[in-house]
Design goal:
alpha+beta, about 20% strand, about 35% helix, Peroxisomal Thiolase, Chain A, domain 1, 10 helices, eight-stranded mixed beta sheet
Length: about 280
């Protein structure tokens, strides 16, 4: 197939949370193959930077999205107020969706303001602006099982384009997240757990850079993970489709991975570790 232009960025910070993957530092040896993976439920709280009223209103989706976003910012020693953001999720707040559906199917179909407030797909982006103080642009998208790939492509496009028009060469924060549906929706869309990945993507190398990545469209089959339990996560949760990329970074080895995108296309990513200076 014909090749498109390649997009390049540096990963300066990573946030990760999922079943058995408590955060990026804890997950690194697991993904690198030097520690065993053991699944366990994740514990996640709303960021303390949210005002009390907003903390009470947040569901699991917002908590996961903001947790990994703040972890990536902290790891890269970055200022959230200086970064654009791309939020991507295959479903967003699925508990809220279930609650609204049940209310609409009942005799009393009055939707609470909080339920309605959290029903929009861009709710986590709004909470992020409140919690971080960021007033930079935030893009919110969904592409079903290809949501992680679509978000990564959008974020890297923004990094490249913005660096050509902004002399300060600011980066973009990618936040991919998913959470399970309650029954009976779970039977139709069985996501086994909540999961989140955040990548702080920058146009130039810094002292905090972990790896340089180069992305292009491809028709290669998406990479799988040798660990069967981790592969089950990758296959069953759209946000976890980014695990092969994180595994390459965790191993600290140069290589090439293919990630899920809109079939028959995939995203081919060349990874080159740069090390911290």
């Amino acid at each position: 197939m014909s090749k498109t232009a390649r997009l390049t960025a540096y990963i300066d910070g990573i946030g990760l949370i999922g079943p058995g993957l408590d955060n990026w530092p804890a997950a690194q040896p697991i993904l690198a193959g030097s520690a065993a993976y053991e699944s366990h439920p994740l514990l996640v709280a709303a960021p303390q930077s949210l005002p009390p009223a907003e903390r009470r209103r947040t569901g699991l989706a917002v908590k996961v999205a903001l947790t990994v976003a703040f972890d990536a910012i902290a790891a890269g020693q970055l200022d959230a107020k200086q970064l654009a953001a791309v939020f991507t999720s295959s479903g967003a707040d699925n508990d809220n969706c279930d609650a609204i559906c049940k209310t609409l199917a009942s005799d009393d179909r009055s939707i609470s303001p909080t339920r309605f407030h959290n029903s929009v797909h861009n709710a986590p982006a709004g909470y992020w602006g409140i919690a971080s103080g960021a007033m930079t642009p935030a893009t919110v998208l969904c592409a079903h099982d290809a949501s992680f790939g679509a978000g990564l492509l959008e974020a890297m496009t923004q990094v490249v384009v913005d660096s050509q028009v902004d002399f300060e060469r600011r980066g973009t924060l990618l936040i991919a997240y998913d959470m399970p549906y309650p029954e009976p929706l779970h039977a139709k869309r069985p996501l086994p757990g909540a999961f989140g990945i955040a990548l702080a993507l920058m146009p130039v190398r810094s002292a905090q850079s972990l790896a340089r990545i180069e992305l292009e469209l491809s028709d290669a089959a998406p990479d799988t993970l040798a660990d069967l339990a981790l592969e089950a996560l990758r296959r069953s949760i759209p946000a976890a489709r980014g695990l092969p990329l994180l595994q390459a970074v965790a191993r600290g080895e140069a290589g090439r991975v293919a990630l899920d995108y809109l079939a028959p296309l995939s995203l081919a990513i060349t990874v080159k570790p740069v090390g911290r200076t």
